[in-house]
Write a structure and sequence with these properties.
The complex is a heterodimer of chains A (113) and B (114). Chain A is built from no helices and eleven strands. Chain A is mostly beta strands. In chain A, strands 2, 4, 5, 6, 9, 10 and 11 form a seven-stranded mixed β-sheet that branches. In chain A, strands 1-3-8-7 form a four-stranded antiparallel β-sheet, with no helix packed on it. In chain A, a hairpin with a 6-residue loop joins strand 5 (43-49) and strand 6. Chain B has 114 residues and is an all-beta fold. Chain B has strands at 4-7, 10-14, 19-25, 32-38, 45-51, 56-59, 62-67, 72-77, 86-96, 99-104, 108-113. The chains are: A mainly beta (113), B mainly beta (114). Chains A and B meet through strand 9 and strand 10 of A and strand 4, strand 5, strand 9 and strand 10 of B.
């Protein structure tokens, strides 16, 4: 069982609000990822990090930002939420060395009204 | 860059029958191929994986096969049960200096009918 957590699990918020989605892992993994999952199921990589103080944009352009101040923590922030941000957000992590696996958190279902 | 295709997008089978999901990839540098199962309201869960130096791997009712020459790999589920109903994702992965990079297929929605 992977030790990766996301909060909140569900969030309904009004347009224009600032939100932060939390992601934490206790496995000591260096690499962390954020995916956006659309209703058609596909996973789109929006951000990733190689380690502390490293953040990179993924394949899908996103208005969100991320930070990596601690190895175990990789929060995602939307400064001003819009209805187009409504989606499922999935956090994942993988070790840098000696292993290949990527583990996912349970996800945050965001609805912007 | 890597491109992963997955077929079919939806699959319905009768309980007890077998299900097969197929994926193709484009980048010969990919060396790791995981399969994930995502149940409703949950994150994807790794169910089986295979590395490029292996042709087949089995874990109880699920198996994965890899054909490196043809750049395709498949998930096989035998004796399907209703709890196998979920969305399944394949992925192709290769390693750089900073760890693994993953490209996912678009997913297959499997329904096992009782």
């Amino acid at each position: 069982e992977a030790d990766i957590y996301q909060t909140p699990r569900y969030l309904v918020i009004g347009t224009g609000k600032k939100i932060t989605l939390e992601c934490s892992q206790t496995m000591g993994h260096d690499k962390m990822y954020w995916y956006q999952q659309d209703p058609g199921m596909e996973l789109h990589l929006i951000h990733y990090s190689y380690g502390v103080n490293s953040t990179e944009k993924g394949d899908l352009s996103s208005e969100s930002t991320v930070s990596r101040i601690r190895t175990e923590h990789f929060p995602l922030t939307l400064e001003s939420a819009r209805p187009s941000h409504t989606s499922q957000y999935l956090c994942a992590s993988s070790p840098q060395t000696f292993s290949y696996e990527q583990y996912f958190g349970p996800g945050t279902r965001l609805t912007v009204t | 860059g890597e491109n992963v295709e997955q077929h079919p997008s939806t699959l319905s089978v009768q309980e007890g029958d077998s299900a097969v999901i197929k994926c193709t990839y484009s980048d010969s540098a990919s060396n790791y191929f995981p399969w994930y199962k995502q149940e409703l309201g949950k994150g994807p869960q790794l169910i089986i994986d295979i590395r490029s130096n292996v042709g087949e791997k089995k874990d109880q009712r699920i198996a994965v096969t890899l054909n490196k020459t043809a750049k395709h790999f498949s998930l096989h589920i035998t004796e399907t049960q209703p709890e196998d109903s979920a969305v399944y994702f394949c992925a192709a992965s290769h390693r750089d200096n900073y760890g693994q990079n993953f490209v996912f297929g678009p997913g297959t929605r499997l329904s096992v009918l009782p």
